[in-house]
Amino acid sequence: MEGAQILTELSPLCKIYCSDGEEYTMSSCVRGELMEVNESLLHKPSILQEKPSTEGYTAVVLPTFEESKSITEGLLKQKQYEEVVVKRINATTATS
């Protein structure tokens, strides 16, 4: 896409500010073109946890064709991802 911002694995996508004062920078993790940023997160950040498979995305990055296979091989499977989310939610509620 002409005019799209080119990202590397370390390019920052966003900064996350937590209620406990912690701050995190989320990186692209893949090389490619930035196609879309989910601006809905600005108004309702809870959709990251509430709808992670649909509306809870940070950005859409289009990887180069050559890299797409190696990128998808390293992704978590659905069940693995759900286990990570459950662990994080449990850890958050345990410390609250």
Automatic annotation (TrEMBL):
Gene: LOC112062651
Any GO BP: regulation of actin filament polymerization
PANTHER family registered for this protein in UniProt: PROTEIN ABITRAM
Name of the protein this chain belongs to: Protein Abitram
Major place of residence: other
Annotated signal sequence range: none
Gene Ontology cellular component list: dendrite; filopodium tip; growth cone; lamellipodium; nuclear speck
Localization in the cell: Cell projection, Dendrite; Cell projection, Growth cone; Cell projection, Lamellipodium; Nucleus speckle
Keywords: Cell projection, Nucleus
Homology family: Belongs to the ABITRAM family.
Subunit text: Interacts with F-actin. Interacts with G-actin.
SUPFAM superfamilies named in the record: Single hybrid motif (SSF51230)
GO MF term set: actin filament binding; actin monomer binding
Pfam families documented for this protein: GCV_H (PF01597)
